[in-house]
Design brief:
Mean pLDDT: 88
Low-confidence stretches: none
Strand order of the largest sheet: 1-2-3-4-5
Shape: globular
Number of helices: 4
Structural class: alpha/beta
Largest sheet: 5 strands, mixed
Strand content: 15-25%
Order of helices and strands: EEHEHEHEH
């Protein structure tokens, strides 16, 4: 996965792309800049099927460690669904994450819609 901050403060987490550092390190670098952002992802619910329990634990520990930074800097996360609606269990998990991190999670069908929503979140207009 690749965190593409070239359009910052709209930051794209892209499944089509690679980096020589982990997504956690990329996210930490983004947080270390101290600038507010909206995360837009084309991340699918089945992207983690090959993760080991150890990898899941490491990821959970990372997010626990950066939770306060995420709460301050991340204005929201927008999931690009495309043509396929996100299943209810994933939406429930997103709602839980939204409460834990204190930011909005939205689901949209297109990148243009995601950009409009992201700009709205950055402007403080919420949902």
């Amino acid at each position: 996965m690749l965190i593409d901050a070239s359009r910052s403060p709209l930051v794209f987490l892209r499944t089509q792309g690679q980096s020589n550092i982990s997504v956690e390190e990329q996210l930490q670098q983004l947080l270390d800049k101290g600038q507010r952002f909206v995360l837009i992802t084309d991340h699918s619910q089945d992207d983690h099927h090959d993760e080991t329990p150890g990898e899941r634990k490491q990821k959970a520990l990372f997010f626990k460690r950066v939770k306060d930074q995420m709460r301050v800097l991340c204005r929201g996360m927008i999931v690009l669904e495309g043509d396929k609606s996100t299943p209810a269990p994933m939406r429930l998990a997103a709602a839980t994450a939204s409460k834990a991190f204190g930011f909005t999670v939205a689901f949209v069908s297109s990148e243009d819609e995601a950009i409009r929503k992201g700009e709205s979140l950055l402007a403080g207009q919420g949902n």
